[in-house]
Fold each of these.
Amino acid sequence: MRTLSAKTYAKINLTLDVIRRRDDSYHDLEMIMQSVGLFDVLTISENSGKDINVGTNSSFVAKNEQNIAYKAAQKVFSLTGVKDRGIDIYIEKSIPVSAGLAGGSSNAAGVIVLLNEMFSLGLSDADIKSAARDIGADVTFCLFGGTALAQGIGDELTFLPDMPDCHIVLAKPNAHVSTHAAFSKLDVGKIGLRPDTHGALDAIKSGDIFKLSRRLYNVLEEAAAKDIKDIHEIKSVLYDEGALGASMSGSGPSVFAIFDDEEKAKSSGERLLSMCESVHLIAPVNRGVEIL
């Protein structure tokens, strides 16, 4: 019986703008998404039964049908007509949970990729994208990764040149945020400041990390920071240590910063260790799922 593993990479939002609330309760978004070198390791093994079993090293992650990786496996089997095949899914978590980093979505993307490979399903790109969209808004990006402009609910992707080389400090406060709750609190009509998405796109295309860093912005951050004071405190430390720019990722509460100097990045990370649940010194990557 086969066993396959993959790295499933986290993402950050270089920009995040909410355009409007849709009739289906989702929101139309415009954001620049970036994969980063923080990953979970996903392992899928065939078993002799007929069930989908989920295991993980994290006490914060569901081990039943509520897990998005379980839902992804169900979706793939339903889409392809695969029946009576049992699998064990094990998720070794390194990406913080409920942190605005798409850890769960990246796991779901990994399930799609590994099951397609394991059972030689021959899923087309259209099938994969359709399955990903049904599972979750970020799953489509997590399938491919890299650097992309995401629109619609986040599943309409325009891939961009790789983000310029840099050092990224990613800090997760001792707090958790529900994506649904974050968006439900947002009054789109009262959004004042919005990101300069087009300016950020130009910076990526020209490879200008300084110009890009000045355009990091997330419209969800202001509301999140009212409830989680650590967001502003973390950003203050990052800028004090020489960050070129800093912002919250996704619905939060994780904060990231871009540095052009590795020593400054390390110094900021060391200062943040005592005030955060986790701190990572990472870099941009150009993939979402990497089969091992």
Note: Residues 103-118 form the longest helix (16 residues).
Amino acid sequence: MTQTPDLAVTKDRHVAIIEIQRPPHNFFDAVLVRGIAAALETLDTDDDCRAVVLAAEGKSFCAGADFAKNPRIATFAESTNPRDKHLYKEAARIFRTAKPIIAAVHGAAIGGGLGLACAADFRVTCREAHFSANFTRLGLHPGFGLTETLPILLGMQRASLLLYSGRRIDGAQAVEWGLADVLAADGEVRSSALVLAHELAESAPLALQSTRQTLRRGLADRIEKATERECIEQEWLRRTEDFAEGIRAGSARERPTFQHR
């Protein structure tokens, strides 16, 4: 087992499990996303690993960025090292890794947490889970490549509905719409994700990776371009009064009063 302050990597036969360990809500930043990308890249060098389950401990899978604590946390690495990349550059690394990923989504997958879940090939969830691209509710442009991944998964109309409205859907609707693939009982999300991962691991590993590479051909490049646009839009919106109001209202659990400025 590999252990860092925020991640644990274990093996179950030919399946690796990456567990996010920032309970209860597993808020992310560039450091955490960099760690997930690095773990996946390391697993790419492990011929014994054929599939990966991305899971989390605590109440939520990933509730996105903790804007109330740090309004800039969604984009920039908390580092003075000029070689460190902003969060979305780190996120793009995830899409370039080779092994199939199954996200075990319990609780909340919100904002960038939804983006992280959509970086996986498949999502296993439960009725009690909820999914939301809540960026516009906060006065911000969507990020983490969701402007690319959601239309692929849902089609443009349903993706636009979620991205424009920020509405929340539960796990059952996520499966109905194609945002998730397997609906498990509450408390069995991770074990169900492992069952699917082991099914994938029964395939010939070279053929599995080759097929995945063909199906996802060009995706990482499109994600990188999409995140460049997302980052630019987030930067100017972050300086608006509406963003400040969105963060204030969200922290207070109140309805925001946006002023178009």
Note: The chain has ten helices and ten strands.
Amino acid sequence: MAKLRLSRRPDSDTIRKVSLEPALEYVTDPRGRLESRQAQMTFRMELQNGDQWSADYEKNFELLPEPFEVYPDFVLPPGEYDFQNVRLSYQLGPQRKLSGRVTYQFGGFYGGTRNEWSYRGRIETSPQLSLEPNVSVNRVELSQGAQGAFTATLLGGRTTFNVSPRMSLSALIQYSSFDSELLTNVRFRWEYQPGSDFFVVYSDGRATGLEEPLLLQSRSLAVKLTRLVRF
């Protein structure tokens, strides 16, 4: 992978820095056959208030040696695929009570088209409590007509409560339409001494089908202890 960044700080009361970032990723198999290639050009603008705006252009090549299920009942046939994407995003500065990144992406997708809207943010309600919502909606059309189209949705959120500078409790809940599953994760972290942590993590996954809603599919409890030893 090769990447280059060209930056300039203009004499402006609004713009802090502008950047142009070309990049190229080239992946081959052990026999030297091209598997994946992505040429990307990113224009980024950082504002004086901490916000950031960016625009990305991507030209992609992907080789599928065998059929690939991209979504339930939607299988991509083997072959070589060339497609292009444009991504626009605006990120609110972390100093705000409400921050995060809003993104819109459109372009090709393995012989079809894709439109994606997403938001990943952070809401700080107090120094101890914060919320992190996450929403992503992908509309994909692989061929003409409704039979070649689907919408993939990901909804989630994380809540973090800082009991003290060394102790926190967080909970994550996430729904994915890909497998119609609701995932829950609760984590307790205690840094009992600098560099050493104690974790307790509970997770479960539940199906969201109409016949047996919230049917338990998986459940786990993990306890982890780390200790920093200095020599």
Note: The chain has one domain: 2-178.
